[in-house]
Amino acid sequence: MSGGGGAMESSLIAKHLLLCCLFLVASALAAVAQAKTVHEHWDISYQFTHSDCVRKLAVTINGGTPGPTIRAVQGDTVVVTVKNLLMTENVAIHWHGIRQLGTPWADGTEGVTQCPILPGDTFEYRFVVDRPGTYMYHAHYGMQRSAGLNGMIVVAAAPGGPDAEPFAYDGGEHDVLLNDWWHKSTYEQAAGLAAVPIEWVGEPKSLLINGRGRYNCSAMASDAAAACNATHPECATQVFAVVPGKTYRFRIASVTSLSALNFEIEGHEMTVVETDGHYVKPFVVKNLNIYSGETYSVLIKADQDPNRNYWLASNVVSRKPGTPTGTAVLSYYGGRSSPRAPPPTSPPAGPAWDDTAYRINQSLATVAHPEHAHPPPPRADRTILLLNSQNKIDGRVKWAINNVSFTLPHTPYLVALKRRLRGAFDERPPPETYNHTGYDVYGVQANPNATTSDGLYRLAFGSVVDVVLQNANMLAPNNSETHPWHLHGHDFWTLGYGVGRFDPAAHPPAFNLRDPVMKNTVAVHPYGWTALRFRADNPGVWAFHCHIEAHFFMGMGVAFEEGIERVGKLPEEITRCVSKKGGQH
Amino acid sequence: MSGGGGAMESSLIAKHLLLCCLFLVASALAAVAQAKTVHEHWDISYQFTHSDCVRKLAVTINGGTPGPTIRAVQGDTVVVTVKNLLMTENVAIHWHGIRQLGTPWADGTEGVTQCPILPGDTFEYRFVVDRPGTYMYHAHYGMQRSAGLNGMIVVAAAPGGPDAEPFAYDGGEHDVLLNDWWHKSTYEQAAGLAAVPIEWVGEPKSLLINGRGRYNCSAMASDAAAACNATHPECATQVFAVVPGKTYRFRIASVTSLSALNFEIEGHEMTVVETDGHYVKPFVVKNLNIYSGETYSVLIKADQDPNRNYWLASNVVSRKPGTPTGTAVLSYYGGRSSPRAPPPTSPPAGPAWDDTAYRINQSLATVAHPEHAHPPPPRADRTILLLNSQNKIDGRVKWAINNVSFTLPHTPYLVALKRRLRGAFDERPPPETYNHTGYDVYGVQANPNATTSDGLYRLAFGSVVDVVLQNANMLAPNNSETHPWHLHGHDFWTLGYGVGRFDPAAHPPAFNLRDPVMKNTVAVHPYGWTALRFRADNPGVWAFHCHIEAHFFMGMGVAFEEGIERVGKLPEEITRCVSKKGGQH
């Protein structure tokens, strides 16, 4: 339109502009109105529980374990007010998979992002759930996660938004939280791990589905059996009900302390559609391998005989199982079977526990959904090779990364770095690599110079970092375990998996740069390597560690700092353990 | 000498003065040289222990329980550097019987005098042991004392000083620390006490002498018996060796969680000479009743047949015993019996557990040594009557004092009062008395309006305070227990004991104002009362409570403030749990 338009035209333009403007404002208002605040008020206390029918003192949320599922919509602010009613014990809670953009102090990682919450204190975690998906929360202090403080976070996609699900299900959703369970207290477990000689935690007593398992009371000695009540309502089998013909989304999270699991719904194939908050190119499995710290969504169609029930089964893989199958029941509405009736079959036993190739295949099959691929930057600014090894340090069995066994500093990194406290941690950076040309990952290695350190990796803000996790043999011959590594504050691209020793020259050209799925937790398979990439663009300090509780306790982790100068003012409440006299004391 | 004395005389006077002055200076220097600093460095950690042959996770000092005996001389400064190596649990240590003159922040009472010590923190307790005597230390946080963190403090009299012992012993000293022991963790105990319905801790599994007991492994179920090792060196019977003909001082302390004990040395009469750091008019007993928190010194003469051994025995009294006799062995040097040989007799069974009169008689016999009597002020400025009752509050069984069940504030009183923080605790003072004319101490009472509160008594500085502890029936009919009450920061005069309801008009004239012994812990006997007097002259805030761990946990205590304005600058380290935003949060 030229400068000399008539009154009529001008009026039309103005009208257009006004409408356009109103629409924009309305949209913005709608968006604002949509994003709400989800409040949770949690009392943390010790309670006697019967998760697998055996009475055990557990750390509970509002009296129960697992805790309530947090349900929110993408963009919501979640506010969890945590009151610590443990008598003498502190607590910290991690929101696993939530990136904490702009709120690094709310990550809940004791020693990294906050001082622990003292008994009697109330602490407010406040963060935005910026992405839809299936997540979890759990204690991140000592070995407190194993004591029962855990639960799920379910974030729905904003309706009609760019992250809406690229799949449909007309039946609704079911949440499945998988766990393993011990009868010894976490204190006993930790004291045993730190003892000389080490007393290993051993295989779990039970596998739990939604906090329910079933220990064989009759196998217990008479005096101990008094604490076992097979009819206790807390260990009643969980029933998942479905309407014949409908399709359901099962959200599955594993918060196990130790076990890699295989999950199966008897008679029902599963279509994998999401992992760790990212949509995957759908693929069908009979059963699903899931490692501690991972989440998946699968779709199942209720298309089987509705007049009988079906097992949900979790089985230990990767370690030689010493624990019965964990079970729940799938039941059809309107069928002739009572919902609680045990299925007429034996529960699925899962694949061979030592079939590593089977599990690697699932890792390789898990790639980004084509409509939701976020291709990674084409190259990394820095590559860090992390070899894990089992070592002896001062007579104690430890895990080490590049021969350094990780310990947490007393003053949280976030506080020490933000306040520039000196001496709060070992300021020498940990090693960037290991002897990657000569190390025999299949043999027992001496690793004589292993040390402990709370040093951390400092990353250039915005830089692209590749990390290659290298697995190897442990102290015992012919033994290499699966380690699920979890990165805080980020999702990373899973660029590749391999068997044997990673070759920095040979392997990167085969990295999947086309459609790698993003995740926050990834397995490094026995004797194998896993390569991942992330952008160090989230100001804060972030733990990266094996999600097996005992392994992290024994030193299997590192920490990354990035953009500390961009971190906002720290809440006073996270600094309660920091001496005014300085970092170390 | 008159004013006009000659030069000769002046010179003599000057010489005299000079000599006198030099002597004073020398004395002062000698005193300074004598007072030394005793350093202890303690690592607090969980360790598996076998105190009664059964494996149990205990809170230990430098790996052991009980901890080392602190040995010092009157006037010494004791510095204990405590490093908390518990993984997720805080700690605080109370120096039981040490008055903390000028160092109220070093009393180690969580919630009263300090914030707890966080995991990874190092805290320095520094205080003067101003009086000779037998004392103890133990955790004072939650129910942590029961977990094994305890030990003895032995303060020798300054040689030749005014507090030198009015008795002699040529054989030396033996220390005896009595305890009771459970196999459940203190977490389980505390969770049970707080449960609805209450799950009582029950009778102890074993009685320990110097941390050693002997559980009957063969009585355990097969799977539990694996944790019982009758030949474990940690539960080897303690042997006390004596030289024939010599006289020994046995220092005896009871740190039991629950049990009133009777202690006996088979075949050897005991002459009681000290209690709680005060010399008593010697009296002879066959066996000694000792309540949790009390200490005694007794003299025994090694005048029996040296060719056999003798039992040391501790037996439960006041509660119907459900625990075998705790034992150790007395053995003569040069005798024909092996030191570890069990005596040829059965261990002494002690007096009838319910012979209250027998125990009251010992209380009445315990009066001040005539050369060391510190007569009390003739009258009190204020009298506080404290009725204890068992109550139900919100369905939970509690103990209450004048119908108020005591809770500890989150911000320690000492910090809240010194910093004048508002809202840190209930500022309404607790009741000064109860219905002392009408209350039936022998019947079950409803006490419908019982409440919980963290209010405290504020005492005029320097005033003389009488406290009368009134015992009564519990919730169950025909049941009244012995409660040993311990006052922090003070010794008090024990003015009198009575049976039934205290009458403020009738009973005080019979108070013993002539030679009452001073103590820091005193029993109130079943259905009885105990009167005590102290001067509120130690600036600080001081707990006063039943020394039965479960009873204090259930609310059986009060707190006193006096002279807060005279308290010096608080160390920053005790304030770590205090929010900058104010007392309450």
CATH architecture of the largest domain in chain A: Sandwich
Biggest contact: A-B, 41 and 41 residues
How many helices of chain A? The count is 6
CATH level 1 class label of the largest domain in chain A = Mainly Beta
Give, in spatial order, the strands making up the sheet with the most strands of chain A: 10-9-12-17-14-15
- Roughly how many Å is the radius of gyration of chain A? 25 Å
The oligomerization state is homodimer
CATH-derived topology of the largest domain in chain A: Immunoglobulin-like
- Count the beta strands of chain A: 32
Find the structural class of chain A using helix and strand composition. mainly beta
Beta fraction of the residues of chain A?
25-35%
Number of domains of chain A: 3
Q: Quote the distance from N terminus to C terminus of chain A.
A: 73 Å
Main β-sheet description of chain A = 6 strands, mixed
Q: Helix content range of the residues of chain A, please?
A: 10-25%
Question: What is the name of the CATH superfamily of the largest domain in chain A?
Answer: Cupredoxins -  blue copper proteins
Q: List unreliable stretches of 5+ residues of chain A.
A: 1-8, 17-33
**Could you tell me the mean pLDDT of chain A?**
93
Structural description of this entry:
2 copies of one chain form a homodimer. With about 575 residues, chain A is mainly beta. Chain A has 3 domains: about 35-155, Cupredoxins -  blue copper proteins (Immunoglobulin-like, Sandwich), CATH 2.60.40.420; about 170-370, Cupredoxins -  blue copper proteins (Immunoglobulin-like), CATH 2.60.40; about 375-575, Immunoglobulin-like, CATH 2.60.40. Chain A is built from 6 helices and 32 strands. Mean pLDDT of chain A is about 95; it is low at about 1-10 and about 15-35. The interface between A and B is large, with 41 and 41 residues.
